[in-house]
Amino acid sequence: MDTREQFYKKLKKKLKKDTKFPSKYLYKFIVPTDEDKVNQVENLFNHAGAVITKKTSKTGKFTSVSIHVVMKNADAVILKYKQAEKIEGIISL
In this predicted model, what pLDDT tens digit does every residue of 28-50 receive, in sequence order? Predict the structure, then answer.
């Protein structure tokens, strides 16, 4: 099992133990400041009633994207992380 699979397995266990779903969840990502990449992150959560805030770093090289959204279960939370992984240069916090 690779480290990503282990991470998601641990996350799922923790979410099931600590969170009563449906629940509001906070995603935090850092992406290179590139309109296309920021839009890709936003588009992952379109039509989900998400509240999205963005902040550009002091140097302007990176943008922090925070997303508050109601998720129905742990699997849905993990699915969004897996979809986000496909965006080049993204860092999940």
Answer: 999 999 999 999 999 999 877 89
Give the chain's end-to-end CA distance (angstroms, integer).
22
- 85's enclosing H/E stretch is none
How far, in Å, CA of 92 to CA of 26, rounded?
11
Structural domains of the chain in order of their starting residue, each with its CATH number: 3-92 (3.30.70.260)
Residue 10 and residue 74 in contact, taking contact as beta carbons nearer than 8 Å: no
Fill in the DSSP letter of residue 23: E
Amino acid letter for position 3? T
Residues counted in the chain = 93
Three-class SS of residue 17? helix
Confirm if 12 and 78 have CB atoms less than 8 A apart. yes
